[in-house]
Amino acid sequence: MSTSAPLPPEALDDWLAALAARLGLDPADVPVGTLLDVARDVAHNVARPAAPLSTFLVGLAAARAGGTAADIERASALATELALAWPADYPDTTR
What we know:
Residues 8-88 form the DUF6457 domain. By secondary structure, the protein is mainly alpha-helical. The protein is built from four helices and no strands. The model has no long low-confidence stretch (mean pLDDT 90).
């Protein structure tokens, strides 16, 4: 079934549990709040389309580092730090 209706907020946990199971992951290993924070900071300080790509990169980096909760937190912190420091006028074409 395909629909363009957005996922209601109360269904987020069900969706993540189903996707995690489909991907062979334990839903308990998904730091939802941390990833949503990264997505928010990137969307607001870089660009909205950069948010999902950034969370993918966070996951990829964490997996390559070992995939522990600490690896996810470390990659998330680096992404957030970069997003919060991203210049509002990037690229500055006046230089």
